[in-house]
Design goal:
It is built from 5 helices and 13 strands. It has about 270 residues and is α/β, with parallel strands linked by helices. It has a single domain, classed as Metallo-dependent phosphatases (Purple Acid Phosphatase, chain A, domain 2, 4-Layer Sandwich), CATH 3.60.21. Helix 3 links the parallel strand 6 and strand 7. The chain is globular. The protein starts with 8 loop residues before the first strand and ends in an 8-residue tail after the last strand.
């Protein structure tokens, strides 16, 4: 992708799972840096910024203050996963935060929403949040649920559709990618906190990657401090994971989409 996107395309920045305060800080610094570069005329800002925030409160869940902080940074849509409901106070605000998502394939009646449509720069961006079922909670089929959502979106006809698949199994994410090829602009995996090297454009124009990685501490185990990990894995004893200290990195993907067709270009 060129430094300056053409007017015939739009860009989406998807940031992988944001882990605790270190993750929030590195995201803040990244977005501030992008704004500075844009002010100097060196690049255009992404048209939409999406971040998976289910680990943003001490690694488990998301608080109201976190939501406010992300909005102030410039994050447009907040997606979630299996840790979305870790904090009890999430039920106080998840229904009123229209750009905060939890997986759409939770049972009917679950608080919150599984997809949203955001209007920016004269375009409508739909973001859908799904969760896998392999090695995770036995939720409704993400395949059936996304079919239903896409049917609902037909009338609104969003220009760009991004799907965050929060899942453990790479094969399940890949299957969803191929299943949605040509029907959505991008399928981006989250959850494992380890970025994969399989980014590609599928045959019918959908951008795909199995996992976008994480924004958080570099020198831990998926963002967590080593002592607690070793206690659990080596000694087989109960341990509460704590956020690792030290330098943090931001992982994600920048996707360029053709305005006219909604197909990914890179």
């Amino acid at each position: 992708m060129s430094e300056l996107q053409s007017s015939s395309s739009v860009s989406i920045l998807f940031l992988g799972d944001v882990i605790g305060k270190p993750g929030r800080l590195v995201v803040r610094n990244l977005l501030a840096s992008l704004k500075d570069e844009a002010a100097r005329g060196e690049r255009l800002l992404p048209d939409l910024v999406v971040a998976n925030v289910e680990n943003s409160s001490h690694g488990f869940g998301v608080s109201r203050d976190n939501v406010t902080e992300f909005k102030e940074m410039g994050v447009d849509v907040l997606s979630g996963g299996n840790h979305t409901f870790d904090r009890k106070d999430v039920f106080d605000f998840i229904d009123t935060e229209t750009t905060m998502l939890r997986p759409a394939n939770y049972p009917e009646g679950t608080p919150g929403r599984g997809f949203t449509v955001v209007e920016k720069n004269g375009l409508q961006f739909a973001v859908i949040n799904l969760m896998g079922r392999i090695f995770m909670e036995p939720l409704q089929s993400p395949f059936a649920v996304v079919d239903s959502i896409l049917e609902k979106l037909k009338e609104q006809a969003p220009d760009v559709i991004l799907v965050d698949v929060h899942a453990e199994a790479t094969a399940e994410k890949m299957a969803l990618g191929w299943y949605l090829d040509g029907r959505v602009s991008a399928v981006v995996g989250s959850h494992t906190h380890v970025q994969t090297a399989d980014e590609r454009l599928l045959h019918k124009g959908t951008a795909y990657i199995s996992d976008a990685g994480a924004c958080g501490p570099r020198d831990g185990v998926i963002g967590m401090a080593l002592d607690g990990v070793f206690r659990r894995m080596v000694k087989q004893l109960p341990s509460r994971f704590e956020i690792a200290e030290g330098p943090a990195t931001a992982c994600g993907v920048l996707i360029e989409v053709e305005r006219k067709t909604g197909r990914a270009l890179s």
